[in-house]
Please model this.
Amino acid sequence: MNEADYKKVLTDYIDKRLNISEEEKEIIASSYTLKSFQKKEHIFSQGKPCSIETFVVKGTLRLYHVDNKGQEHVLLFAFPEWWVGDMASFNTGEPSSLNLQVLEETIALVIDPTEKEVLLKKVPKLERLFRLMIQKNLSVLQKRFLLTISANASYRYLELIERSPGIEQLVPQHQIASYLGIHPESLSRMKKQLLK
Amino acid sequence: MNEADYKKVLTDYIDKRLNISEEEKEIIASSYTLKSFQKKEHIFSQGKPCSIETFVVKGTLRLYHVDNKGQEHVLLFAFPEWWVGDMASFNTGEPSSLNLQVLEETIALVIDPTEKEVLLKKVPKLERLFRLMIQKNLSVLQKRFLLTISANASYRYLELIERSPGIEQLVPQHQIASYLGIHPESLSRMKKQLLK
DNA sequence: TCAACTCGTTGACATAGGTTAAGAGATTTC
DNA sequence: GAAATCTCTTAACCTATGTCAACGAGTTGA
Model:
């Protein structure tokens, strides 16, 4: 696949949701920059402003936070056709509280706040797309929050593998533990229990 | 205070963030309906579509979810100048998973999806206001989520009363427990511990 | 190819918070 | 103003998960 092919993934994605003209497709394609990232690389980091919004074309990423005890907490794993970033930081310029790290070699389309503003001026329709995207993020997070405080770890684990079958092949187990909000030893013990 | 005064709270709120003309103020004021709600009343409920978005002018509310074990979980308490609703349901018409209940007699300005769409057509500027509102909601929820999985209940309790001083006067303790994700007995025990 | 890491597992013990039950004040309701 | 209901507290016991330490199997790197 070449650059044009990768960008077509994005414009197809948008077209499916909004119906955009060929001209708009070109504007969008030229507003985004194609980047590839190596395993373990950090695309943005906690403490610095996040000036990147990412549309994943290929690969796997994790978005995580390090708390003041030094513990990591995975907020989400990202796969192809996902938007990832730290919206708060991207829009306000304040330091991010999140890290975006590559788990499997990734190809993504990225944009910075200035370019995004220009793009939105040229294709105002996209306002709606991004609003829907935020809304979706919010309702996903809300569900996750409610699940986290109302169900125990085994239930959350089963829910995760049902919702994302194959995730155990893509992501090391200690990071799944971190996503579930428990320690690797606990997940290990729990899986043993579940086998009964 | 009369109806016009209450609506002025909203238009002032918006003017502070967007700079709107007198004419726009009038359109906004006439798009919202003033309602008052009695203590314990439910403004919308789980299982039914939520066709109301609320701007609180006076009073206290709680937004909560009942899980499949019948346990209630408070997502947030709402105070004057807050927007409350279930965005997912409001925008898609799908059944809500949340309940909005009045804790103290409340006066609010409400709008339904159709009226809101009309309003947005008349005053497109507001798109931005609502996008900022969602973004803010998202980053608040994200912070809350990370705190919930990285800190214990006493830390979360202290954080809450520091962030919302006076909340203990406004909200019964068992609902604060529910907000913290613990049982009333645990909060009671915890407070005793903290006195040392 | 040897050394150093990384990852998952196991076991023993510690602790936060859940569960159940009871009782004492407040507050609401009729 | 008596009865019913709600709210908070306490206590005893239970359970899920954390913590620490050790071990073996892979994997990575010099």
